[in-house]
Amino acid sequence: MGVSVFAEEAHVEKRLTSLLGKVKWQAGLIIGTVTPKRHFAVSLIATPIDDESNGSGFVGLDKDWVTLHAEQVRQALPGGLDIIGMYIFCPGSAEYTSHLRQLLYSVCGPARQSRDQANDVDQFQEGSTVMDRVSLHMCSASKKITCRTYNVRDSTASAKPAEWKYKSFLSKWQQVSCMFNADLDVPVLREAGQRTRTTLDQTIRAALAPQFAAISNAYMAFNPILEGGVCSVDSDESVIPENATSARLFTALHTRPSTSALAAVIGSLKLHGSVSGLAFVPPKSSVGVTKSALKTDLIRTLWARCSAVCDTLDDDLRNYELKSDASGGDAPTDLSAPPKQTPSGTPVPNSAVALPIRLRVPFADSLFLSDYVAVEDDTEEYTDSIERMGAIFGLTITSADVSPLESFSTSLESLTPPPVDADGTASAVDKHTLTHSDSRHNQILLLGAAAFVVLLAVLYQFLSQ
């Protein structure tokens, strides 16, 4: 017998049972996490029916359509969760095995990783070294469940049998959070009317590279306690404390990309905001696994926020260039110039754009999904998010269910990173101890020293008598 797949009773079993006698067939994604010893399936997300399938059933389900839906689902998942496989509910099994395998490789295989816009975000997940993904079939006639795994890195790999077990475990998982202060300078290039969404994506990804590197190389402490100005960092092999709910991120300083060599630069856009990182991990997970889940989420959410503003930025920049070309004037090349606006009010280079804030959308038990909304959108209805998340996940969501996880006005506590050499590596600091500058802590130390001096004086006076 191969790997064991534990499926959450309250969600997975209930979902499969509810299909009996109600639908002819259904295909979708298995959400969970993979480890070397066992896999966990926490929920099933049905793939929406493609209007172009013409009622041809599962075999007519378009691979591109399934992949697009999977990418939308993955973007909304918190750290620690990913798409670990696909399922099909239908009569029979043999005639669907080949198509199900093709879809599984498209959604979870190397081809998907090459499409990932988040700079190889998979490298930060524990599951990145575990390439077995789950294929599940439930016969609608006999109720028989067939579970297999495939090594999606090898297109010639044969199926391996897997043990499918129902178990209640989700309520025991730990939720850990952290914060990251994002600050990006994006050079705006003149494209002579040829600007495309891809061009803007590539420019923002280039600006994100130092941020991703800082997150990837960051030190992290869970429920940190400062002792003498020093914060202890646990080894990756140790087990995360059961009461750990927050982590503190220590990132090295990174240099801003130089724009002096870019002849086509017409300005600069500053993207900034407080980014919350969230991860759900099984109990007794190692520090290394939890760190990977948090870093994965930070990179995933940072890219999702930047992607959310791409369309707006692209429209604004296109309008700005068209107006500049029509007037015969040149766009400003001085990046230190103050922000300007076109007569229509369209913001132009050198302006600051606040990153969208993260919304909490209930999912399963204590788990939740994420969507993003612009900071200036102060409505509490979040109509667009409710409709979008409802369509992607097949959920019934009300405005009362959705709440923001952060505010643009939130000020992050200043963290002091370890000293950094010219090559960007930490120096003169042991990897398990990091200095943290805290003025309030210093004040407490001064008060303690003063009290100690007074105590010595009293003792000396007492002994003298």
Break the fold down into its secondary structure elements and pairings.
Blueprint lengths: L3 E5 H11 L6 E9 L3 E9 L16 H14 L5 E9 L3 H15 L1 H6 L16 E8 L5 E7 L8 E2 L1 E5 L6 E16 L7 H20 L2 E4 L3 E2 L2 E3 L14 E4 L14 E17 L5 H41 L23 E4 L2 E8 L2 E7 L9 H11 L9 E2 L28 E3 L3 H26 L1
Parallel strand pairs: 1-3, 1-8, 4-5, 14-15
Antiparallel strand pairs: 2-3, 2-4, 5-6, 6-7, 9-14, 10-13, 11-12, 12-19, 16-17, 16-18
Helix pairs in contact: 2-3, 5-6
Describe this structure in words.
The protein has 465 residues and is α+β, with helices and mostly antiparallel strands. Helix content is 31%, strand content 27%. The termini are far apart. Strands 7-6-5-4-2-3-1-8 form an eight-stranded mixed β-sheet, with helices on both faces. A three-stranded mixed β-sheet has the order 9-14-15. The longest helix is centred in the middle third of the chain and has 41 residues, at 287-327. Helix 2 crosses helix 3 and helix 5 (197-216) packs antiparallel against helix 6 (287-327). It is built from eight helices and 19 strands. The protein is globular. Strand 11 and strand 12 (230-232) form a beta hairpin.
